[in-house]
Amino acid sequence: MAIGYKQLLAEADAEVSSLTIEEAAARLEDPGLVFVDIRDPRELERDGLIPGAKHAPRGMLEFWIDPESPYHKDWFASDQTFLFYCASGWRSLLAAQIAQRMGLKVASLRGGFGDWRRADLPQAQREPR
């Protein structure tokens, strides 16, 4: 029998560390933590993002992480911890699990950008491309 998204999320949650929005906000200026927004570019343009966050679309993540890929992004080759987030925390939890399996130090933002916005934490705007 196939497994559903709830089981996938539970398994990822057991493997990946998560930060609350309060814990993440306290580390916003931490040079050892890179915020990575995996949402679709249209979501960033519509809703904004966490100041200083890198953008790595979920569909390209594995290719951007892998140094053997022609799409590799050098900033993923650092020894920093990558804090993945999306709108609610589900996509980013699964993305963080994959990134961790690929060798990165990771965490996931519990509650995602939605909780971040509702808490009125710092936000930046992204201009349409």
From TrEMBL:
Highest taxon of the lineage: Bacteria
InterPro entries hit by this protein: Rhodanese-like_dom (IPR001763), Rhodanese-like_dom_sf (IPR036873)
One Pfam family matching this protein: Rhodanese
Domain Rhodanese: 29-125
Gene Ontology MF terms in the entry: thiosulfate-cyanide sulfurtransferase activity
The name this protein goes by in its record: Molybdopterin biosynthesis protein MoeB
Species per Swiss-Prot/TrEMBL record: Thalassovita autumnalis
